[in-house]
Design brief:
Blueprint lengths: L7 H14 L6 H9 L18 E4 L2 E3 L2 H11 L8 E5 L5 H10 L4 E6 L2 H13 L3 H6 L2 E5 L12 E6 L8 H5 L1 E12 L3 E8 L5 E9 L7 H6 L2
Helix pairs in contact: 1-2, 2-4
Bound molecules: S-adenosyl-L-homocysteine (SAH).
The site of S-adenosyl-L-homocysteine has 26 residues, from strand 2, helix 4 and strand 4.
GO molecular function, one term: protein-L-isoaspartate (D-aspartate) O-methyltransferase activity
Organism: Eucalyptus grandis
Pfam families: PCMT
Length: 229
C-alpha cells in the first residue's frame, strides 16, 4: 500500500482512510489523531512514510507499521480521554506519543520514555514540526531518556501504558504504575510474541488477554540493542 499523490498531510489522511477501509480500526477519535499527526514528519528522509510496514530508524530499531499504531491506539482509546495520563515506553520516533498527547489534550499527560538519547533528540524535533508541538511546549507532552522497564514514576499512575518493544515478561514497575481501571498494551515473548492487553481492575487484580501475534524489536538494555544481540 503506498499513497502516492498529494502533499504530506493529504497522503497521511489517505493512508488513515485506507487503514479504516481495510478494517484495521474504526474509531473516529483514533482517525482524528492519526490524521493530525503526519507520519511523514517522523521517519528519516527518503523513507516511504505512508507504506503500511515497519521502517528502519537507525540504532537497530524500527518505527512500527501504521496498522500496529492504529490497533494500539484503538485498544487504548477509552484510556486516552481528555485529562488522562498516558505512558509510551520505547517512544522511538515520537509518533505514537504525539497521537497520545493529542487524544489526552492539554489537561492530560503524555510521557515518552526512550533509552537512545539520539532518538529522544530527533523525536522532539519531529514533534516540534507536528500538530502536537504546542503540547510539547506547554508541557503536557514530554519525551525522556530512560530505561522504560522502570516506567516513569513522576507522572504515575497511568490510565494508558503502551510498550513499543517486546518484553520477556511484563515489567513489575509498569504494572505498579498502571492505575486501577487502566490498560496496558504490551508485546510479550522472544521470537514469537503476543500483543497482550492488561487491564488493572478496580480491586487491583489484573485481567490479561492475547490480542494477536506480533513481531517487535526487544525491550532490552541499550548495550544489547546497539550490539544487535
Ligand atoms: N513506538 C516507536 C518505536 C518502536 S521500536 C515508534 O513506532 O516509533 C522500539 C523502541 O524501543 C526503540 O526506539 C528502542 O530504542 C526502544 N527501547 C528498547 N528497549 C528499551 C528500554 N529498555 N527502555 C527504553 N526504550 C527502549
Amino acid at each position: 500500500m503506498e499513497v502516492s499523490s498529494g502533499n504530506g498531510i493529504d497522503r497521511n489522511k489517505a493512508m488513515v482512510e485506507q487503514l479504516q477501509r481495510y478494517g484495521i480500526f474504526n474509531s473516529k477519535k483514533v482517525a482524528e489523531a492519526m490524521e493530525k499527526v503526519d507520519r511523514g514528519l517522523f521517519v528519516p528522509a527518503g523513507t516511504p512514510a505512508y507504506v503500511d510496514s515497519p521502517m528502519a530508524i537507525g540504532y537497530n530499531v524500527t518505527i512500527s507499521a501504521p496498522h500496529m499504531h492504529a490497533m494500539c491506539l484503538q485498544l487504548l482509546e477509552k484510556n486516552l480521554q481528555p485529562g488522562m495520563h498516558a505512558l509510551d515506553i520505547g517512544s522511538g520516533t515520537g509518533y505514537l506519543t504525539a497521537c497520545f498527547a493529542l487524544m489526552v489534550g492539554p489537561e492530560g499527560r503524555a510521557v515518552g520514555v526512550e533509552h537512545i538519547p539520539e532518538l529522544v533528540t530527533s523525536s522532539i524535533k519531529n514533534i516540534e514540526k507536528s500538530e502536537a508541538a504546542s503540547l510539547l511546549k506547554q508541557g503536557s507532552l514530554s519525551i525522556n531518556v530512560g530505561d522504560g522497564r522502570q516506567g516513569w514514576p513522576e507522572f504515575a499512575a497511568y490510565d494508558a501504558i503502551h510498550v513499543g518493544a517486546a518484553a520477556r515478561e511484563i515489567p513489575q514497575p509498569l504494572i505498579d504504575q498502571l492505575k486501577p481501571g487502566g490498560r496496558m498494551v504490551i508485546p510479550v515473548g522472544n521470537v514469537f510474541q503476543d500483543l497482550k492487553v492488561v487491564d488493572k481492575n478496580l480491586d487491583g487484580s489484573l485481567s490479561i488477554r492475547n490480542e494477536t501475534s506480533v513481531r517487535y524489536v526487544p525491550l532490552t538494555s541499550r548495550d544489547a540493542q546497539l550490539r544487535g544481540t
